[in-house]
Specification:
227 residues, alpha/beta, TIM Barrel, 8-stranded parallel beta barrel, 10 helices, 46% helix, globular
Amino acid sequence: MKLCVALDLKTRKENLTIVEKLGGLDLWFKIGLRSFIAEGWDFVKEVRIKSGAPIFLDLKLCDIPNTTADAALGIADRGVEMFNLHASAGVRTMETTMNRLSVLKKRPIVLAVTALTSFSDDEFMEIYNKPIETAAIEMARFAYGAGLDGAVCSVYESKAIKAANDDRFLTLCPGVRFEGGKANDQSRVATPQIASEARCDFIVMGRPILLASDPRAAVLKALSVFC
Ligand code: C5P
């Protein structure tokens, strides 16, 4: 299992201070919409240079096949190690994207977002008219069929997604909290220990690390359960 630290603080300076504090640790950095929209590719480059760590660009692409595939190629050209798109963009979008990336000698890991971990069962039902687990497993199956490398899902769907596809199909799970920690806007939360038992390949932690009085100690605490 690997830990992705979400660089979701408000300013470039605050995020880079976190990167500095976490220097030398075996982790990934996740750059999401908030930091990317505010700071762009220069920020991605700066995080890479300062940390030497692999980058997960969490932009959750969701568009028609041609646009998503072009955007994916643009992301791959920048050399990030992993990015994602929404499975709900559809099988044709996922297949077109993977085809377009197939011309590259080396491509990033591509993940499909299934159900956002902020959804409660009721909220999810309202939009998708299906229980979360059923939909997440279905979306992951489409992503696997389209040639993607893995799925973004909650810790609670990780095992079932692997069982329905392939053990090597990656799961990346946000919504991870220390025992007794605040859930914030997340709904389906789990501890790093439970994530490890659920055989998640990656966990994402933002606020439990960013807002800790000692972010480095918080990362070491999370890493201590890793096998
Ligand atoms: O602060 P917290 O640990 O909740 O941060 C979770 C991070 O993971 C945020 O950057 C959020 O955008 C991202 N994420 C998520 N659920 C997904 C995909 C990404 O929470 N399904």
